[in-house]
# Entry
Amino acid sequence: MRPHRPSIAAVIEQRRSFRRLHERGCFVLPNPWDPGSARTLQSLGFKAVATTSAGFAWSQARPDNGVTVDQVIEHLRAMVAAVDVPVNADSEAGFATDAAGVEHNVRRAVEAGVAGLSTEDSTGDPAQPLYPREPAIERLRAARQALDAAGGPDERVLLVGRSDGFSVGRPDLAETIGRLQAYSETGADLTRSPGVDQRRLSPLPPACLREPSTALRSCLWSNCRDVSTRSWEVRRTGC
# Structure
C-alpha cells in the first residue's frame, strides 16, 4: 500500500520551514533509515531529518548504492508521509549517468514531497571516483533546473551540492573548494564535502571566503561520525 501523501500546502510549508532553519544558522540534521526511526527522531525534538542512502540500502539487505531509483522514490514518499518535519533527500549522484537523467530523477524526488535534496559528484567507479568538473557542474545545473520548474522561490526544494573527494580517496582541499564554489555559482543553495574534519584543517585560503560564503560553510562541514563532535564545536568553526 502506498503511503499517505501530505497535502500540497503541508509540503510547501515544510519547504519554507527548511529554508528558515538554514537561515537561522546551525542545526543538527539526523539520518533516519526508515519511517519508524524518522518518527522517533521527530518525537525527540529534531526540526528536520535527512534520508541516508547507506542506511536505507542496509535496511533492505543491500550495499550502499545497491538500490534502484524506484525503490528510493518510494522510500522518500514513505519518509515524507511519516513525519511533520522537513525531509532532506540523499539522492546520491542522481541515479543517472547524464544530466538529463539527473533532471528527470530530481523531478521525481520533488513530486515525492521532499524539502531538500543533495546531489553528489562521486561515480561509484574506483578507477574514476569523481565526475570530471564540467560534467559534474552540468549535472548540478540539471538538478537546479528541475527544482526551479517545480515552484516559486519560497516553495522550491533546497539544493545541496556535494563534493566527495575526501570520502573517495581524493582528499585535495583546493580541488574540493573549487568544486564547491562552482556548484554554488551554478545554483546550489548550500554545498558540502563529507569527510573533511574542520578541527584539523589549517586556516583556509582566501578563495574560500567568496560570497555567498556557502563554500566556506561547506568545506568546513563534515559528517559527525565522531561522537565527540558537539554542535557547539561545529558552530565555533563558522557555521
Summary: The longest strand covers residues 116-120. The beta strands are 49-50, 87-90, 116-120, 158-162, 190-192. Confidence is low (pLDDT under 50) at residues 202-230. The two ends are 41 Å apart (CA to CA).
